Fold these 2 entries.
Entry 1:
Amino acid sequence: MCGRFTLMLDANGLQVAFPTFTPPPMVAPRYNIAPTQPVLAIANDGKSKIDFFLWGLIPSWAKDPSMGARMINARAETLAEKPSFKNAYKRRRCLIPADGFYEWQKGPDSKDRTPMFIHRQDRQPFAFAGLWETWHPGDENILSCAIITTTANPLMAPIHDRMPVILPQSAWEEWLDPVEQPPAELDKFLRPYPANEMAAYPVSTLVNSAANDRPECVLPA
C-alpha cells in the first residue's frame, strides 16, 4: 500500500512542475502527508485545475464518510471489478502530485520496521495515478481520492510487495481524458515505474506519527 507521501513544493514550484494546470494560491510544502488529510489532485473534469481532495475515496453511494479512511489505495488488478472503484476508473481519474513516498521495511524481528523514503533518482516531482469521487451530504460537495497501487518493481520488492502507480508525463493527457474509457484502454498505464529511475534510503521514525510534518522527516537516518 501507499500510506504516506510528500509534496515539498509551494505554489510556484507546483506551477513549474505541472505547467498546464492552475494550482491553488496557498500551498505549503508537505513532508508527511497522511490518509484522511487534504491532498492536491488534478481531476479529469476538463478544468485543468489543481484542487484539494480528501485522501480516502468516499463513493457517491456511501452513507458514512468514514468509509473513505479504508479506501486510501485501490489495487490496479481489481479496479474494474470493485464496486467502490469501477465507475471511477472509467469516468473519474486524477493525478496526485508528489515528490516521494514512504514505506516501512520489515527487519529480522517482525516488530522491527524501518521507514524508507522512495523518490525519483533526479529528485523531480511526479504524479500518482488516482481515482476521485464527489460525495453529497446535503448541500455540501466533498471531493475525495485514492492512489492506485500495483506490484513492486525490483527496487521496491525488498521493501514492500506493492507500490503506487507513477504515471510518466506522456500519459497524463490520456489519463485525464474526461470521456469514459473502457478498462482495457487504461490498464496499460498501471505498471510499476522503472526501478532504475528510482532511489530509496532509510529515514527517521519521526514519520511514524502523522503529527510530524517537517523537513526532518525526509533526512537520511
Entry 2:
Amino acid sequence: MKRILIAAAAVFAALSVSAQTAEEFKAKYERQTRNVGLSGVGVETILDSWAETFPEDRDMLYARFLFFFDKSKGNAVVSRPSTKYLGREPVMNLTDSTGKKVYYFQDVTFDDALYGEALKTIEILISKDILNLKYRFTKVAALKEFEKEDIVLTLSELQGLVAQNAGKPAWHYDSDPVDSELFAESIQTYCAELYSVGSESAYEAFKTISEMMLKQYPKESCFLDNLGSYWMMSKKNYKKALSYYNKALKINPSDQVAKTNVKIVQKKMAAAKK
C-alpha cells in the first residue's frame, strides 16, 4: 500500500510540473535569475524543465542562450603596451625592467564549448524568426565580445544585416515594429562600438559598414562623419577626412560631430605643415 501511495505521489508531482504554463516557467526563471544571476545555482534546472515541457518556446531558447553565454565567460587581467584596450582604460600600469610602461586591463575569457552552445541556440532562434532584430543584434553583440580586436565574424554578420535591409524587410524587435530610421540608428550604435575598439580590423569593419549604410541612407550625415573619422584616425589622411566632414555639413549644417572634427583636422593639417 505504501509503495502504491509513493508511486501515486510521484505521478502527481510529474503531472504538476507538466501542468505549468510557459508563462509560469518564465516567471520562475526570472525570479531565480534576479536572485542568482543568469547562470547561477538552480537556473539550469529550471531551463531543463522548461525545455522538456515547451521545447519550441522562444523565451526558453533565449534564456538558454543567456545561460550558456554568461556561463562561458571568465575574467582575466591582460597586459598591453598601449593606454587603451577595446576602448577601455587600464586598471593599473607598471614600469618594466627597460623603463617602458606596461598597462593592465580587465578582460573576458571564454569557454569555447559553452560559447558554442550559446551561439547554436541564438542561431536556432534566428532560423525561427529571421526578421526579429532582438535575435540578430544579440548574435552581433556576442560575436563582437568574443572576437575582441579581430573583428571578422562580427563584420560578416553586420554585412548580412545591412544587405538584407536594402530589400526593406519588415524588421521587428519581438512584437514591436522597427522602421528604417530606427534600424539606421541601431547600426550606427554598432559602428560607434567598432570605432571604440580601435584595432585595425575594427576600423576596417567600421569603414565597410559605414560605406554600406551611406549607400542606403545618403542623407544621414553620421555615416559621412564615420568615414571622416576613419580617414583621420586610422589612416591619418587629414585631407580626405576633411572632405567627408565637409560633405556631412552640406547635408546637415548643424552636425556637431562634423563641426568639432573639422577643427581637429585643420589643427592636425596645420601642425603637419609646420
